[in-house]
Specification:
The protein is an alpha/beta fold and about 210 residues long. It has helices spanning about 5-10, 25-35, 50-60, 75-85, 95-100, 115-125, 140-145, 165-170, 185-190, 195-210, and strands spanning about 15-20, 40-45, 65-70, 90, 110, 130, 155-160, 180. The radius of gyration is 16 Å and the shape is globular.
């Protein structure tokens, strides 16, 4: 298991769009809109019936987009996501089952941890990149700031409640390598086919941290 393989995910992308989508036909336009805005990675969560089909479609039709699978809770989820072309895996937590199955695949795995005990356990296994979820509910900025000293070797991707206003604040922390966020892809944009808005928000997000 390459525990440091998540580094490449955040090398060029500080924003990881978290996509909850069931309409397969919307997937490719969304991906192109993000790419036009400078974002080349997206996490499709397994919260809809067509999530796996969407991952497969994006992997086949938009190869320049690095498409991952989120909300991976079980070994079966993990296997199915990889089978359908997921290029990285994200989970809100970490279990022995997920640790074991991740050893079978040479793709990045970003598990979740929020407490010192969870972080220590993940670190002992070898994970140095962790998801911090739900960030805002856990007073994420202050907690991550406090965790930076005792866990200087651990890097985090806070997700949950991240918006264009607080993202910049999170990204000033030395232990935050990127943020997961859903504000790029609101239901109203998808319903109205307003892909230009997605591109606009992506450009604005990067402009705000330069």
């Amino acid at each position: 298991m390459k525990t440091n393989s998540c580094a490449n995910l955040f090398e060029k992308n500080k924003f990881i769009p978290v996509v909850i989508l069931n309409d397969i036909d919307k997937a490719v336009p969304i991906a192109h809109a993000l790419l036009d805005g400078g974002i080349s990675v997206m996490e499709v969560t397994l919260r809809t019936n067509n999530a796996l089909k969407i991952i497969e479609k994006l992997n086949n039709e938009v190869p320049e987009m690095t498409t991952g699978a989120g909300t991976i809770l079980t070994e079966e989820h993990y296997h199915m996501a990889v089978k359908h072309g997921a290029q990285f895996i994200v989970s809100p937590g970490l279990t022995a089952e997920l640790t074991e199955v991740s050893k079978h695949y040479d793709i990045p795995f970003l598990p979740g941890a929020v407490t010192p005990t969870e972080i220590m356990q993940a670190s002992l296994i070898g994970y140095q990149y962790l998801k911090f979820f739900p960030a805002e509910s856990y007073n994420g900025y202050d907690v991550l700031k406090a965790l930076a000293s005792p866990f200087a070797h651990i890097k985090f991707c806070p997700t949950g409640g991240i918006n264009i206003d607080n993202a910049k604040k999170y990204l000033t922390l030395p232990n935050v390598v990127g943020v997961g966020c859903s504000f790029f892809i609101k239901d109203e944009y998808i319903t109205n086919n307003n892909y230009a808005k997605i591109t606009e928000l992506a450009k604005s997000a990067y402009a705000s941290i330069r």
